[in-house]
Amino acid sequence: MMIAGASSGHFTDEAGRWLMLRGVNLGGSSKVPVTPDGRTHEREGFYDGARVSFVGRPFPLEEADEHFSHLVRWGQNFLRLLVTWEAIEHAGPGMYDSEYLEYLEAVVESAARHGVSLYIDPHQDVWSRWTGGDGAPLWTLEAVGFEARNLHASGAAMLHQEMGERYPQMQWFSNHLRLGCATMFTLFFAGDDFAPGIAVGGEPIQKFLQDRYIEAFGALARRLAAYPNVVGFGPMNEPGEGFIGIEDIRAPRNDLVLPGLAPTPWEAMCAGEGIASSAERIAVKGGSLRSTGRVQLGTPGLRAWKDGEACVWRRVGVWDIERGEAVLKRPGWFARSGSGPNDALSPQGPGFRRMFNQRYLKPFSAKFAARIGSAGGKSNRFMIFVESSALGEMPAFTDASLGVPLPETGGTAAFPVIVNETHWYDSLTLTLKRWTGFLGYDPDLKKVIVGPRALRRNFREALARIVRHSKDFMGNAPTLLGEFGLPFDLNGRRAYRTGSFRVHQRALSSYYEALDANLLNATIWDYTADNTHERGDGWNGEDLSVFCVEDGGGRALAGFVRPYAMAVAGNMLLMQFDQRHGKFIFEYAPDLSITAPTEVFVPMLQFPRGASVRASGATFSELSLKIEGKTRYSLAPTESERYFSLHLSPEKGAQRCRLTIQRL
Q1: Which is the most buried residue in 14, 391, 484, 571, by most CB within 10 A?
Q2: What whole-number distance in Å separates Cα of residue 403 and Cα of residue 374?
Q3: Which tens digits make up the pLDDT trace of 29-59?
Q4: What are the chain's domains?
Q5: Is the pTM value of this prediction over 0.90?
Q6: Do the Cβ atoms of 1 and 8 come closer than 8 Å?
Q7: Pick from 519, 464, 514, 459: which is nearest to 21 by CA?
């Protein structure tokens, strides 16, 4: 089914039905090239960033039909398709990989044949592969003077490629505190304010970086404009705030308390200059994250910068060297906003993160949306899926702010349909790779959650806050949980030894129960076609794929292949599935002006012995058997991956329709 637009906080099709979107992120290994082998445990060819190819990510084209068939059978009819800037423009500024663009177009065409809709996710994590993640091409770092081969040894980045098996579990995110990542995000979003005079080829650094990024994805949008199953683009996955808004660069980042090394910005700058430095190491201790002592940061005498290139922040006067010593000149440099070096901090509301969202992220998103919209063939055909930094506040896009000022032109850009694409993870399970079912941590409330009921309630409430934000601060935009999921190498990789994924099924069921309680669209992280037990998703030790050939294809299927209402001719009121007892309940208020039926996906994986189906206020038919005029019927047991699509039609004058499916 195709998405036509949005209304009253939800997606709609051409018939006016309320659509429920459930799907996957495709895929985890799309962050790294196919050739040379870009999986992060491999170092060979890593520093030759120009000669790479992403053709074959997320999977070889000849496997596309097989993978899309899996997803459709599992009811995953909506995709967040990962595309990195590096994949498009790795060879140099303005030099696009036409073979990769052709490949992506073929993947989109294959998805369309299977009835799968998607949106493009310009994916990055901590800026680039050379700063510990993925996303931007190597030439972006080189353009500002970084020497990529020195970033790890100088403490400017932490790289799996350099550490090998010593790479610490789930600590890649701490690269946000390192010099490489923080510098690049600051220049990208706020170079005009914080790096005046820094230019590439006479072009201000902010404009240089943003224009090339936006034009690269504009080229992709032109190619995909003719495919109606491509419904939109996201401006950027989990954008980083860099140093923006920090009041004193000598102080610890209390807003980013993460496992791993946690240098202050000043410590990061000194280490990047080859000056002997140390930083706090943060770890879980006594039930909380706290410092466990200081360790050396970087290598004395080794700079993160090319020979003959001065540190960007030295060039703009943040610090200097006097009598052989590094001297901090402007500790509050990043706590100001405006066009001049003496402008005072002027956040639009409390907190510098709101300043980042309002002053920097939103104008960039508007500029991105305007370019993508112009490539769509008709005005604003593409929806824009917006998000903020992973630990920051969700962006505010109220009705009054949809016309966003563009500082470069003095004009405004009107947003098309926007979608709140915030991410959410069960943080304790994600970072520690442990699932208990009774213990969790809420990073928003900053408290430990104890007890199975309390934990599930916390999941529901966390997702409810995201939906409320869409209503209150984003003009009642639709909400799609762009990422959530869990590691499959949980609990010491026990499932790989036993072959049992029951723990994973229980965890996933608790997440989907929270989604259903909030009638929330979602794409799970992730589906990696080449996932392996040994190397997971091939990126920084992560292993979150719901697919693995070594496990026979889909794994923990009962946790996420669940019945749900795919298209509703009216207003959804209630959707619940008790996986343990095999009972699904769905209620909606019918809109009698909509002639298309309400469609419910019913995977017989959840009803292996068959199921009884009954309805009140409606009749139903099953798509293949055409059972007409029934209010009660028994579905016979079928092979495990078989599914039905039940079509509901309201009875004359019905005010409320209820469907119940019960395992026999």
Answers
A1: 484
A2: 16
A3: 999 999 999 999 999 999 999 999 999 999 9
A4: 20-244+350-560 (3.20.20.80), 564-663 (2.60.40.1180)
A5: yes
A6: no
A7: 519
